[in-house]
Design brief:
Layout: H1 5-19, H2 24-28, H3 68-71, E1 79-83, H4 89-98, E2 103-108, H5 111-124, E3 129-133, E4 146-152, H6 161-171, E5 172-186, H7 191-194, H8 197-201, H9 210-219, E6 223-232, H10 237-240, H11 246-254, E7 258-267
Parallel strand pairs: 1-2, 1-4, 2-3, 4-5
Antiparallel strand pairs: 5-7, 6-7
Length: 278
């Protein structure tokens, strides 16, 4: 039976409340932090943040699938919105760039994550980093607020991705832009992976086709859409074996179907003020 959007959100919220209480090491050994996938030491999705300015280990739960802040063209004094801000990892890196004159707003719909992020911000004495409890499909933020929006391995978990990118367009200032790292598919995943609840909360089964993902961004009104980085995600056989038969694993490995992490950049067009330009 197909799960409703609210059921999927409840599943993700439950999983990420648990993840908020786990260590980075525990999260990296599971399917994008979902838990219960394997007890092997693989960092399946996450990239290494530890060398970036503004990195704080307490905020790093090992949940990302890219480094969107590295490509986000953030400037001093910018207002940055981080979608699915978790314990504050990307928000704190962004804060190191915007400086005291800028502002960072993190949005997450898991209360435990918001609590953890606020605690981290308090410990660091950051007065220009704010974390708001809310849904990415209906952001608790006004329109035309952000210079830059970032997100790391989150939008693929949102059931209504069209609504999420429409909301991203709304909160960005004219001329603003986003840089988002996410999980997408090329070809159809085997059914065992596609419909597994664990893998949904673990970033894979919530993913959609790469072309469809980019089309949603374009249809939201964004321009200059660019894939800044792309890497294939290799799931270890120990994890695949929990969902697929040996024959299916062999077929999956040899086929053209793939799971990819992509970092996508796009711009909200500047406001049109000249006669006849609209």
């Amino acid at each position: 039976m197909t799960q409703s959007s609210e059921q999927l959100k409840a599943l993700v919220r439950e999983k990420y409340a648990l993840i908020a209480q786990q260590s980075k090491d525990e999260n990296e050994k599971s399917c994008c932090g979902a838990g219960g996938c394997a007890t092997i030491d693989y960092t399946i999705m996450a990239d290494d943040y530890s060398t970036l300015k503004g990195y704080h280990a307490d905020a790093d739960l090992g949940l990302g699938c890219g480094l969107p802040t590295e490509f986000a063209l953030i400037h001093e004094g910018d207002t940055v919105v981080d979608l699915g801000s978790g314990a504050g990892n990307d928000a704190f890196v962004a804060r190191s760039i915007v400086g005291e004159k800028g502002k960072v707003i993190g949005i997450d719909f898991t209360e435990k994550m918001i609590e953890k992020a606020r605690l981290n911000a308090d410990k660091l004495n950051f007065n220009n980093v704010e974390f708001r409890l809310g849904d990415i499909e209906n952001m608790p933020i006004g329109g035309n607020i952000a210079d830059v929006v970032v997100s790391n391995c989150v939008l693929n978990l949102v059931p209504d991705k069209k609504r999420a990118f429409d909301e991203t367009f709304r909160v960005l200032k004219p001329g603003g832009h986003f840089s988002v790292s996410d999980i997408v598919l090329v070809g159809d995943l085997p059914e065992g992976l596609q419909h597994s609840a664990e893998m949904y909360a673990g970033c894979v089964s919530g993913a959609i086709q790469k072309n469809k993902y980019l089309d949603i961004i374009a249809n939201a009104g964004f321009t200059n859409i660019t894939v800044q980085k792309e890497k294939r995600i290799i799931l270890p056989e120990e994890i695949l074996a929990e969902y697929l038969s040996p024959e299916q694993i062999k077929s999956f490995a040899e086929g053209s179907t793939g799971i990819f992490s992509i970092t996508v950049y796009a711009e909200k067009p500047k406001a049109c003020c000249e006669p006849g330009c609209c």
